[in-house]
Amino acid sequence: MNHFTNRDGYNSIRSQIDWLFRAGKPPGGHPFGAYFTTLGLTTPNLAVRLRIPREKLAYFFSFVDRTGDLVPLEGGRGQFVFYSRTDYTVENPRQLESGATGL
Amino acid sequence: MIGGRDIVLPGATEADEAKLIIDILRPRWPNLVVQDANSDVPYSHEELEGHPVQLREFFVYRDQTAFASWVKDGATDDNSDSLLHMIIEPDAITFVVREGESETGQLANYIVSVLSEQRAARESLQSFEVFGQPGVEEEEEEGDSLCDPAGANSDLIVTGDLQDHA
Question: Domain count of chain A?
Answer without folding.
Answer: 1
